[in-house]
Amino acid sequence: xxxxxxxxxxxxxxxxxxxxxxxxxxxxxxxxxxxxxxxxxxxxxxxxxxxxxxxxxxxxxxxxxxxxxxxxxxxxxxxxxxxxxxxxxxxxxxxxxxxxxxxxxxxxxxxxxxxxxxxxxxxxxxxxxxxxxxxxxxxxxxxxxxxxxxxxxxxxxxxxxxxxxxxxxxxxxxxxxxxxxxxxxxxxxxxxxxxxxxxxxxxxxxxxxxxxxxxxxxxxxxxxxxxxxx
Length: 230
Description:
Layout: E1 6-18, E2 24-36, E3 40-44, H1 51-59, E4 66-71, E5 74-75, H2 81-91, E6 92-95, H3 107-113, H4 123-132, H5 148-161, E7 166-170, H6 178-195, E8 198-203, H7 206-209, E9 215-217, H8 218-221, H9 223-229
Parallel strand pairs: 3-8, 3-9, 6-7, 7-8
Antiparallel strand pairs: 1-2, 1-4, 4-5
């Protein structure tokens, strides 16, 4: 797939959840969205606006009510759970706001496990990534022995380890101080540029959004937000 060609295409994407009154509350209604190979887009949106749900749909963690999610030609929305897991594992690096590290494994093991799918990695690559996020001295520590900021840096290294085609980042600097936030964001951007990966980042932080040339308002994509505020 050449740079600039379409990597991600969403069409008619809708997702609702049960409401307290017994009905359904529409959270995501995105008629159309595209992301090209190598393109970097930041979505601006406040907490609770549905940004995490949006990324979870793209990654196949959640199944939509309707619509298509085409990643490199495969429709994530049309696949069963197992095949969604395989597509996510081979093509997507996800930096979770809540880290999602495996608690019984060390920093190094968490990053190595991130290489299970996709381009086969090695120990030296994992060590290099952990060094770039300043954790060479924490290789054998498990998540409970790390600060929240250190856990977030492990999560960044793990997402980038398999050299994915698409990187999804959910408030990736939310648990970091200003210096570490800047360095982690630089690592994400630089690695995506090196590998030609597309990047879709969601944030409400003006400092983070200010580093992107292409910033879009999530409310501008999501019809459900417009209806909820009208």
